[in-house]
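anyone seen this seq b4? input:
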Amino acid sequence: MDLERPDWFKRTAAWWNPVVGDDVARHVQPVGVSSDGQLYVACSNMPWATNMRLLAPHIAQRLNAQPAPGAPKVEGIAVVKPLPPEELIERWADLAGADLAEQVRPRSLADWGQELVTEAESAHARDLLARRAPVVLARLRAVLPETSIVRLDESHLRTVWVVVATSPEFANRQALENVLMDVWHDTAQTVGPEHPLCFLHAGETAADQMVEEWAAAVRPADLSAPHHVDTMTYAATVDNTDPDALRRRDEWLAGKPHDLCVVFAARDDEKLPLAELARERGTTVWRHVQ
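predicted toks r here
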């Protein structure tokens, strides 16, 4: 990811703090902008990262209403996760133990570098690392004496990612909801009921809106409840007459190592570019025609 920090960007206290307020500014810091107008920010911890994803459209609107001198339009706000030191990643098997290293992996830093965030393949692996935390931290201080990491966060269970490709003509809500329920059930059976499930989509078609409405209906009021269902869309506004913009959107949606691609097509012969791209990248494709 190539981020730029032009002259206008460097004066963050002048254009960021007044828009977001002191509380947000203490926990969220801009780190750069991309050539397509995305503003990237780092957050002090995971709850603030979640808050920022919810607040991003509102904050982007306010930034565009009060732009910094010389600043271009903010097309969207994305959260980046500060990565652990390379040496920590390279020596993770020595730190966590060879038996656990493939089951729990270091993913990012939180609390401005003081907390190591990990992702576990199972609840058993998560709990085992928690029991080993004092030993892992002692080994870490020996390997990296200058490290700022002083604690391990409880491992997050691996998110199951499902990219959804929808036809503008798909309108069978009941069929769509039945398929999503099947995916949810199969995920709980094969991966585990505690793993979060996230559906990614372009956010453009009526079927995409159905995905949002279904997820909102099944999502527990307590977001910490097991097997939270979530959705994610492409943050930037896309000109549907611009092939390059459409390609960038589809590459972003298909870019993660997805567990599954679900396709909702209107006709047997209909080909959706997002689904074709996901297939090219090795993702299993589950196709449904109304």
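The radius of gyration is 21 Å. The longest helix spans residues 123-143. kinda curious what u guys think
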